[in-house]
Amino acid sequence: MALDRYVAICYPLRHATIFTHKLVVQLGTVVILRAAILVAPCLILIKYRLQFYHTTIISHTYCEHMAIVKLAAGNIKVNKIYGLFVAFTVIGFDLTFITFSYSQIFVTVFQSSQKEARLKAFNTCIAHIFVFLQFYLLALFSFFTHRFGSHIPPYIHILFSSMYLLVPPFLNPLVYGVKTKQIRTNVVKMCCSSNSP
């Protein structure tokens, strides 16, 4: 999303020539390979290092790496360290890339002479940044509470971890739908007509 916004705002006339089908496939391949390369060792560490478990019931709403590791009866220090490495690698790379692309976008937006175009681009970027922050802050909360949050009640951790998975897909259509005038107008009409007697 950050790369798409960067190209759309900084090089609007070249968007279609830059974002070719080939580039999109290459970017998708890189993202999938990054996930596979970083997650595969987690699975290997669980399979071959952890042989005995206190229980087989995960006290979580979904199958998370550290939720499984915490079930183990053995030493889980290596799993914790690798989990933190993956979290910091992914979040560090993503936030660095996002920060770079949005700083370039803001430089381009502030150099624009058209006030209305500048305001529209700035407004769109701010909404994107809030979606990114919400996603990464909830992810960090989930990662850190698994490792250091023994004093946090499990139901709070489960709630925030579930929000980390459920809220971003829910927020994205709202954020982008509200930005579209036609959708916003129809939603307002639907809400006003359902409230009238």
TrEMBL record:
GO terms for molecular function: G protein-coupled receptor activity; olfactory receptor activity. Signal peptide: none annotated. Gene3D superfamilies: Rhodopsin 7-helix transmembrane proteins (1.20.1070.10). InterPro entries: GPCR_Rhodpsn_7TM, Olfact_rcpt, OR51/52/56-like. Residues 1-176 form the G-protein coupled receptors family 1 profile domain. The chain crosses the membrane at residues 23-46, 81-100, 121-143, 155-176. Keywords: G-protein coupled receptor, Membrane, Olfaction, Receptor, Sensory transduction, Transducer, Transmembrane, Transmembrane helix. It is found in: Membrane. GO terms for cellular component: plasma membrane. It is a multi-pass membrane protein. Its main location: membrane. It comes from the Eukaryota. The keyword Cell membrane does not apply. Pfam families: 7tm_4. PANTHER family: OLFACTORY RECEPTOR 52A1, OLFACTORY RECEPTOR 56B1-RELATED. This is Olfactory receptor 52A1. It comes from Sciurus carolinensis (Eastern gray squirrel).
